[in-house]
Specification:
Strand content: 35-45%
Oligomer: single chain
Order of helices and strands: HEEEEEEEE
Helix content: 10-25%
Radius of gyration: 16 Å
Number of strands: 8
Number of helices: 1
């Protein structure tokens, strides 16, 4: 039985970005970076970023993604994430999972649409 590894997950992310690039959906480079994350051994997880520059689509829209992940029993656990999609006209939506102390005004899993406030409850998929 083959165990799933963090290296497998990184390869999966790289191949998704490359495939969308080959299909012409993403233009230019596919700047996905894999970085260390505090308190996580490099074989067990880390931070994944495509933020500056972002992934750029052929219609001019961008996707900024940030994940902090950890491998637990052969499964990737998303500790934190932010997926920000923005059109050239400024319209955006962003799904986030982050630590919070005010679960009423800012649920741990939330989304934004057009404005940074309010935080709309958005359960993980």
């Amino acid at each position: 039985m083959t165990r799933f590894t963090y290296a497998d997950y990184k390869n999966h992310i790289r191949s998704l970005a490359a495939e969308y690039g080959r299909q012409g959906h993403i233009v230019g480079s596919t700047p996905v970076h894999f970085l260390p994350a505090q308190g996580i051994h490099s074989n067990e997880g880390g931070a994944i970023r495509a933020t500056d520059p972002s992934l750029r689509f052929k219609d001019g829209a961008i996707l900024r993604l940030q994940e902090e992940v950890r491998l637990v029993n052969g499964e990737i656990k998303l500790l934190r994430y932010s997926y920000h999609y923005e059109r050239p006209n400024g319209y955006f939506f962003r799904y986030e999972h982050e630590d919070t102390t005010d679960l009423i005004r800012k649920p741990a899993y939330h989304m934004h649409v057009v404005f940074d406030l309010p935080h709309f409850n958005a359960s993980p998929g």
